[in-house]
Design brief:
Blueprint lengths: L11 H12 L2 H13 L3 H29 L3 H8 L6 H33 L9 H10 L1 H20 L2 H28 L4 H9 L8 H14 L6 H7 L7 H29 L7 H14 L4 H34 L4 H21 L14 H28 L2 H9 L8 H28 L2
Helix pairs in contact: 1-8, 1-11, 1-12, 1-14, 2-10, 2-12, 3-4, 3-10, 3-11, 3-12, 3-16, 3-18, 4-5, 5-7, 5-14, 5-15, 5-16, 6-13, 7-8, 7-14, 7-15, 8-12, 8-14, 9-12, 11-14, 13-14, 14-15, 16-18
The protein binds phenylalanine.
Phenylalanine binds next to helix 1, helix 2, helix 10 and helix 14.
């Protein structure tokens, strides 16, 4: 009975858009272009694509298999597929990862609203000192905390509207808007004087910059960008229908995410070069260099509004998937209502997020292992938790789920006949190759603590 009343997406397109929404996020918009630029351009892209193809996609398929087969939240999924074992704690780890990730993600999400509103009000002028503007904003308790909480409330609003009416509908609008706007910005960027240099920076392969670290960052970026290792895919897959083919959904999600990352690079880097600036990572690029560039270029005011809307939409669709993973867990495991689960999640995240927001201001001197709250949450979730969960997911799907069930889940749905060799190869990757490589990443990240 309970299963009949379980939430689900209306259509396969709904599943795909939700997964793409989760995948496309702040990771694509600023982290990817910078990583490409500092790690040998196209050389990094090639390594990234190999990592995605041979490691991230197989792990994504595993999460899919676990989610759809169990039709349960990320904790319930392991409990259902391996009753009476400790595997369920993989689900616990996934839920904790989501809380940590969401707590710092909403802070940056808040900045996107702040800058979107400032762009609308046209407060930026060529005379603005953007570094000071940004530092004042993040260190101001009231402004930073207010926008962090506003972003959190937007996320909660979508969650409480439900899977079909909230998540599916919001992702449909946000993803359509994102696709149209990013293409528009890329076309405009190609007309800028720095376009050639920007494309060179992005696509020129320089293998001399490739080291072991490059491979590690490519893999880490793959996990973060495809939302692997935090139960978000398991949760969304549990709302999917057996008529949908897993391999098709995985391929479309991965392709869209990668395309978007490349388009983001093609949109941002020409503008950076035409202004004669250096591309810098993260906050510096999106909230200091780019606003300066927008303030000094023709149509900059409109582009700035569009750009911060894109950042906001990408961040929102990702944070929705993080919150939904925990809400589904609370709802199903503790038999709470959707609204009640959302309130609990909102309460917990608010506390952590406020700590993260304040770590740029009044709590900037408070450090754990040399990290501020924000940096610690970022490092632990992106570099350790995602990979650890991904490792456990691989071991579970490879060694615990029966071969026939694994194959059955992958081949069901769609009109395609999946060749046997592909299934066999996939299983070898999941059982042997992926776990070893992911374990190496985890050890490396722990050393970095
Ligand atoms: N994929 C998101 C990004 O690229 C981040 C994310 C990770 C979202 C895990 C949900 C789950 O920014």
């Amino acid at each position: 009975m309970a299963e009949k009343r379980r939430d689900s997406f209306k259509s396969n397109l709904g599943v795909i858009l939700a997964l793409v929404g989760s995948a496309i996020g702040l990771g694509n918009l600023w982290r990817f272009p910078y990583l490409v630029g500092t790690n040998g351009g196209a050389a990094f892209i090639i390594i990234y694509l190999l990592c995605i193809l041979f490691l991230c996609m197989p792990i994504m398929v595993c999460e899919f298999v676990i989610g759809r087969r169990s039709q349960a939240n990320t904790f319930g999924a392991f409990k259902k597929l391996a009753p009476g074992t400790g595997w369920k704690y993989t689900g616990t780890l996934a839920v904790i990862t989501c809380v940590i990730l969401l707590s710092f993600y909403v802070v940056v999400g808040g900045w996107t609203i702040d800058y979107f509103i400032k762009s609308l009000r046209m407060v930026f002028t060529p005379e603005t000192d953007f570094a000071t503007e940004f530092n004042n904003m993040v260190s101001s308790t009231s402004e930073n905390v207010f926008y962090t909480l506003l972003f959190l409330v937007c996320t909660a609003g979508v969650i409480v509207a439900g899977v079909k009416n909230g998540i599916e509908r919001t992702n449909k609008y946000l993803m359509s808007a994102l696709a149209a706007l990013i293409v528009f910005i890329v076309i405009y960027a190609m007309t800028l004087p720095g376009a050639k240099q920007g494309l060179n920076f992005l696509f020129h392969p320089d293998f001399s910059k490739v080291t072991f670290r490059t491979v590690l960052s490519a893999l880490g970026q793959g996990f973060l960008s495809l939302s692997i290792g935090c139960g978000a895919i398991i949760t969304y897959a549990s709302y999917a229908n057996r008529k949908d083919n897993l391999l098709k959904t995985t391929t479309i999600t991965t392709l869209s995410d990668t395309m978007f990352a490349l388009l983001a690079g093609m949109a941002i880097l020409p503008a950076v070069f035409s202004a004669g600036m250096d591309p810098s990572e993260g906050a510096g690029l999106a909230f200091i260099s780019l606003p300066y560039i927008f303030a000094n270029m023709s149509f900059g005011k409109v582009l700035s509004i569009i750009f911060y809307f894109i950042l906001f939409a990408a961040a929102l669709s990702s944070s929705i998937s993080l919150m939904e993973t925990v809400v589904a867990f609370l709802k199903e495991e503790y038999k709470k209502s959707r609204f009640g689960s959302m309130l609990i999640m909102l309460g917990i995240t608010t506390v952590f997020a406020v700590f993260c927001a304040l770590s740029f201001g009044v709590l900037s001197g408070f450090k754990i292992l040399g990290f501020t709250f924000f940096d610690l949450f970022d490092y632990v979730s992106s570099n350790i938790c995602l990979a650890t969960c991904a490792l456990l997911v691989c071991l579970f799907a490879g060694w615990r789920i029966k071969k026939e069930h694994f194959y059955d889940e992958i081949t069901s749905g769609g009109k395609y006949k999946i060749p046997k060799w592909l299934l066999g190869t996939l299983r070898v990757f999941v059982r042997y190759i992926a776990p070893v490589i992911v374990a190496i990443i985890i050890v490396n990240s722990l050393i970095g603590l």
